[in-house]
Design goal:
The complex is a heterodimer of chains A (286) and B (352). Chain A has helices at 7-37, 53-60, 62-96, 100-108, 115-126, 131-138, 153-177, 181-189, 194-205, 207-222, 226-231, 239-247, 253-285, and strands at residues 40-41, 46-47. By secondary structure, chain A is mostly helical. Helices cover 42% and strands 17% of the residues of chain B. Classes of the chains: A mainly alpha (286), B alpha/beta (352). At the A-B interface, helix 3 and helix 12 of A face helix 3, strand 9 and helix 15 of B.
Chain lengths: 286, 352
């Protein structure tokens, strides 16, 4: 029996399940990943001699660098695009809308369907004989279907931005909701115009929400695999697609593990720089 | 005490019923989806009453990974190019051809394919085969103009698709550069020629297809005019009444593949039951069904005589011997070369 009277044992009892969970499902897989990245693949088995060969290969390969940078740029574009579109929606719901719950429910409706289904929906819209092309053809704007809509970075950014929109709206909504309205009144009383009031009061107070939204979107989208493989064509491939090849066709798990770790590190690096920059900016505005 | 008695009773019942009729579902098959069609193994159904239990894979690599990490089954259905690797990983038993009742009726050329035979041992019972070739829209490209070089012609920018699979892409490239005979052991120079060809094709590629349905739809809609694909795609287009066909001229370049069943080392079902299933699959009547209803050429030579000749001709396999003699065979590529192909293909796809 755990003695709940002692503070220490209570602490252990409370953090135990979480520690176990994180240990088993995060730390152990990570350790396996690190171990694999230091091994090498021979034809059908893994050579367990510790070596940095995979890292050397990844660092000297221009393809890895190129795909890594492209992934970060695509995810960055998705983040920017999504947050910029999400902010007005969140603003409307938090400060203007009357039936907030109904609006929030409406926003989550696309989430009731499978993610794959939503990707295919975009394929249907952007495709060669898709909804958009058929519509433009029938009203006579174009005479041959547009081919730049699908199978490129643009299609990847668009699909991801749509899919992740609620993840941006919700944290921004929460931070807007928390704003004390008397601060806005005070700003108006002190002679601020609506724009000034937004830039000097509302925006700085919602920076935490914006940072949260950016991270929630940026981190998973850098490593997205299914969207680029379905709508990206050859121009829209990302680092996760290369990692998938290593675990699949190439049957080179050690190199795949190395690439996964490098992708994680790049994401971590970019995220930390971003958080520092954004909170610095937030303080400055204030 | 009571529970033991019930347990014993249940066990006895199971044993007696097992003796009367072996459990058909006890046989486990690791297969591509679709092959659980019971008309493929009518004789097995008649004998055991129940179909085998099927588990599916989406690609041979996935199947290999799953088996290597300990997944157990009795039979699996790879293609001949994968068998060497599976043997090297100690996953499969050689087959006893004396127990294969239809062995003598198999197309003779197919029995000698690398992978089916390795070092004098038979490892795979061939089941179905087919072609990978250049499928084109006959309303957009004339028969006398078609050729593998057309894939690299700038006039077809964005109108072309090839598979997102290095081995298939390099088979195409080996054919296009006249190195088909050395496909499994390309020299550095031949490899460079093949890579250069794929680089020349790259700007024309609309997408590298990974599921055949995507490629079929794009061919049907006119988004694509040419594609390097399986005969299954040609069939889908024929059934869809799209004016399209596969370039079957062996001098212009076509590849052949063969897939079949292997006996896994993780198998636990009695060997006789396994061979009963193999024999049902390779029966001429199963062949007739797969030829007529699926449009896939079967490995049993007798199946052709009893199938609808008009369909066989329309589906393009009325002369199997010509394909076996003149086409590039998807044999296992030398492992070092395969790794090189995979690496280079990723570069080519990224535009490097």
């Amino acid at each position: 029996m755990v003695n709940f009277k002692s503070e220490a044992s209570r602490g252990i009892a409370l953090s135990g399940p979480a520690t176990l969970y994180v240990g088993l499902l995060v730390a152990a897989p990570l350790a396996i990943l690190v171990a694999y990245s230091l091994w090498t693949q021979t034809y059908v088995s893994v050579d367990r001699t510790v070596t940095l060969a995979n890292y050397r290969e990844a660092f000297t390969d221009p393809l890895v660098r190129y795909l890594m940078i492209r992934s970060v740029l695509i995810a960055g574009a998705v983040t920017l695009f999504t947050v910029a579109l999400a902010y007005p929606i969140a603003y409307f719901i938090a400060l203007k809308a009357r039936r907030k719950t109904l609006w929030l429910l409406l926003i989550t409706i696309p989430f009731w369907s499978s993610y794959l289904l939503r990707v295919f929906a975009w394929k249907l819209i952007l495709g060669f004989n898709g909804v958009l092309n058929s519509a433009l053809l029938s009203i006579g704007v174009i005479d041959t279907p547009l081919t730049f809509l699908l199978y490129n970075e643009f299609a990847v950014v668009l699909t991801l931005a749509h899919a992740w929109a609620p993840f941006a709206i919700l944290p921004i909504y929460v931070s807007l909701q928390k704003i004390d309205l008397s601060l806005l009144e005070a700003a108006t009383d002190l002679g601020n115009s609506a724009v000034q009031r937004f830039l000097r009061v509302t925006l700085p107070l919602t920076i935490p929400g914006i940072i949260a939204a950016c991270l929630i979107i940026f981190i998973p989208t850098v490593g997205d695999y299914v969207t680029p493989s379905l709508v990206g064509g050859s121009d829209g491939k990302m680092i996760a697609n290369l990692i998938q090849v290593q675990f699949g066709a190439a049957n080179n798990w050690p190199l795949g593990a190395t690439l996964s770790l490098l992708a994680m590190m790049s994401v971590g690096f970019v995220a930390i720089v971003f958080v520092l920059a954004a909170s610095g900016l937030g303080r400055r505005i204030r | 005490m009571k529970f033991t008695a019930i347990g014993a009773l249940a066990l006895t019942t199971a044993l007696t019923s097992g003796a009367a009729l072996a459990d058909g579902g006890a046989l486990t098959v690791f297969d591509w989806s679709g092959y659980e069609d019971q008309a493929f193994f009518t004789a097995y159904m008649e004998k055991y009453g129940d179909a085998p239990t099927y588990t599916f894979f989406g690609s041979q690599e996935e199947a290999f990974t799953k088996l290597q990490s300990g997944f157990a089954a009795d039979l699996a259905h790879p293609c001949s190019d994968a068998v060497r690797k599976w043997v090297a990983a100690d996953l499969i038993h050689p087959l006893d051809t004396s127990k294969l009742t239809n062995w003598d009726a198999m197309l003779p050329e197919i029995k000698e394919v690398d992978g089916i035979q390795i070092d004098g041992k038979t490892y795979m019972m061939p089941f179905e085969w087919g072609n990978t070739g250049l499928i084109y829209r006959t309303d957009k490209i004339a028969d006398d103009k078609i050729g593998l070089q057309l894939l690299a012609d700038p006039a077809y920018q964005g109108k072309v698709s090839i598979p997102d699979a290095a081995s298939s892409a390099y088979a195409l490239a080996a054919l296009a550069t006249g190195n088909a005979d050395d496909y499994t052991k390309l020299s550095d120079e031949q490899f460079k020629e093949a890579s250069d060809y794929l680089r020349a094709v790259h700007p024309n590629i609309r997408f590298y297809w990974s599921d055949a349905g995507q490629m079929d739809q794009a061919m049907a809609s006119g988004e694509l005019e040419m594609g390097w694909a399986w005969n299954q795609s040609e069939l889908n287009l024929i059934w869809n009444e799209t004016p399209a066909k596969m370039m079957r001229d062996i001098d212009k370049g076509i590849a052949t593949w063969v897939c079949g069943y292997v006996h896994l080392k993780s198998s636990t079902t009695p060997v006789d039951q396994i061979y009963d299933h193999l024999n049902a699959l390779s029966d001429a009547t199963s062949g007739k069904y797969i030829i007529e209803s699926w449009g896939y050429p079967h490995a049993n030579a007798d199946a052709y005589a009893i199938s609808d000749a008009a369909l066989i001709e329309q589906y393009g396999f009325d002369d199997p011997k010509a394909f076996f003699d003149g086409s590039l065979f998807f044999d296992a590529v030398d492992p070092a070369l395969e790794a090189k192909m995979l690496k280079e293909f990723e570069r080519i796809k990224a535009g490097f």
